[in-house]
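Q: what sequence does this backbone want?
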């Protein structure tokens, strides 16, 4: 049975973050260096960018909230 889709922004973020974590944890050593759809970036570059961006956003939101 498929889980119900998240309805609110916090639930959607938690759902997306869990799926992102599953994908990252399932990657093998050879999955990180091939080119990605983003010119000159590897999968590792994209993951690093997303993690750093989300940390910066969280810091910004905590300062303004």
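A:
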């Amino acid at each position: 049975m498929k889980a119900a889709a998240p309805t609110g922004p916090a639930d959607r973020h938690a759902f997306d973050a869990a799926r992102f974590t599953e994908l990252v944890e399932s990657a093998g050593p050879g999955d990180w260096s091939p080119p990605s759809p983003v010119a000159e970036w590897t999968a590792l570059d994209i993951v690093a960018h997303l993690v750093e961006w989300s940390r910066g956003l969280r810091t910004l939101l905590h300062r303004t909230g």
